[in-house]
Structure formats: structure tokens, C-alpha cells
Automatic annotation (TrEMBL):
Keywords: Acyltransferase, Transferase. Pathway: Lipid metabolism. This is Acyltransferase. Residues 39-159 form the Phospholipid/glycerol acyltransferase domain. InterPro entries: Plipid/glycerol_acylTrfase. The lineage of its organism: Bacteria, Pseudomonadati, Pseudomonadota, Betaproteobacteria, Neisseriales. One of its GO terms (molecular function) is 1-acylglycerol-3-phosphate O-acyltransferase activity. GO terms for biological process: phosphatidic acid biosynthetic process. CDD domains: LPLAT_AGPAT-like. Coiled coil: none annotated.
Length: 214
């Protein structure tokens, strides 16, 4: 029972106050956010703050349904980080260097079949602030296995200035989250990746309208 309360308590006491008050998180196009799963939220990735920004889109009571997909080699590298990642962040570990033994996305598929909401960064790892890296193919394989699950593109602006690669202390700057319309599986992998990239990049100009929150 206590274990199931850890993530909601963390969200209520840490994530929401930090992201909503300290970081001034602003949400655009909120109506595109899925209220329940199964669904996959994908976003650009420049900072450790990215996952907390996406988690804060949902209330503390909804947190048990939210699962970030995260690199097993990084988040399970020591027992303390592994405990925090598995019990507080509620991650689904994904093996990035798969030697062909089993399905590295099996945990993600199982979560979606249980109507969970998955957070996934299609670049695979944090990149240079403000720039997109080439998209990995993992999301396409996951979508091929779950073709009816909506994929919601999200563009994060501001996290790259707060806690980018190499920075350890979060600075109080505004974070904007722009949520796009859902897309679905396409049988051509390269077309799928190109459409996803275009959908993500198309969300960037909306941040020029700072008063467009809804």
C-alpha cells in the first residue's frame, strides 16, 4: 500500500510545486492531452527536467498510470538510483543495447495493454539544447505492435536552459509545454519517423504566442 502512494506523494510535494511554481510551467493546447490510456506521449529531450515536466501534466492521483520509458543502463546503474527510478518515477526500463535476446519494449507493450500512459523520448537520449537528434526506431516497433494506440507529440521549451546535460542545479526559468494532435502507426518506418519529426518541429513556433495558454 505504501509503495503505491510513493509516486503520488512525490508528485504532490515535489513535482507539482517545483514545476508549476518554481519553474512556471505553462501548458498550451491542453485539450490534446489524453485523459486516460492507453496512450504514448513523445517529446524532444534536452534535460533531466523533461520527464518531470511531462509528469506534471497529470494530477498526483493519476501518477500511478504514468510510466516513463527509460534507459536501463543509466537508471539501474546503482541500487539507489534504481530504487528511485522504479518506485518513485515508476519507469519502465528499456535496454538500449539489445543483443537480439527478447523484446526490449515488452514492458512498454504490457503497460499499454493495461491502459497506462507511456512517456517516451524518441531521440533515445538527451541531445544538444534546442536541437533534435535523429529519431530512433523503437517507437515505430512499439507502434507496430500496438497500432491503435495514439501517439501524442509534445514540444518542451525552456527545460534545455534549466537542467541540460552537464548542469546539476535547476534554475527558475519558464517552461512551455505545447501538446500536439495524436498520430498513429504507419507501416513505412521512415515515413512514420519523418511525420513524427515534422509534427514535433511544427509545435515550436507556437511558443511565440506566450499568452495562448488554454
Amino acid at each position: 500500500m505504501l509503495k503505491s502512494l510513493l509516486k503520488p506523494i512525490f508528485a504532490l510535494c515535489i513535482v507539482w510545486p517545483v514545476m508549476r511554481l518554481w519553474m512556471g510551467l505553462r501548458i498550451h493546447q491542453h485539450h490534446n492531452l489524453p485523459k486516460q490510456g492507453p496512450a504514448i506521449i513523445v517529446a524532444n529531450h534536452n534535460s533531466h527536467m523533461d520527464v518531470f515536466a511531462l509528469m506534471s501534466l497529470y494530477s498526483p492521483l493519476q501518477q500511478r498510470h504514468i510510466h516513463p520509458a527509460a534507459a536501463a543502463d543509466y537508471f539501474l546503474s546503482n541500487k539507489w538510483m534504481a530504487w528511485f527510478a522504479l518506485n518513485i518515477l515508476n519507469i519502465i526500463p528499456v535496454t538500449r543495447q539489445n543483443s537480439g535476446q527478447g523484446n526490449p519494449l515488452q514492458g512498454c507493450e504490457e503497460a499499454l495493454r493495461k491502459n497506462k500512459i507511456l512517456i517516451l523520448f524518441p531521440e533515445g537520449s538527451r541531445g544538444e539544447p534546442g536541437k533534435m537528434q535523429p529519431l530512433k526506431s523503437g517507437l515505430w516497433y512499439l507502434s507496430a505492435a500496438m497500432p491503435d494506440v495514439p501517439i501524442i507529440p509534445v514540444w518542451l521549451q525552456g527545460t534545455e536552459q534549466i537542467m541540460a546535460k552537464g548542469n546539476r542545479i535547476p534554475l527558475p526559468l519558464f517552461i512551455d509545454v505545447n501538446i500536439g494532435r495524436p498520430m498513429y502507426y504507419h507501416p513505412d518506418k521512415e515515413q512514420f519517423k519523418a511525420k513524427l519529426l515534422n509534427n514535433l518541429l511544427a509545435l515550436r513556433p507556437l511558443y511565440k504566442k506566450r499568452d495562448s495558454n488554454d
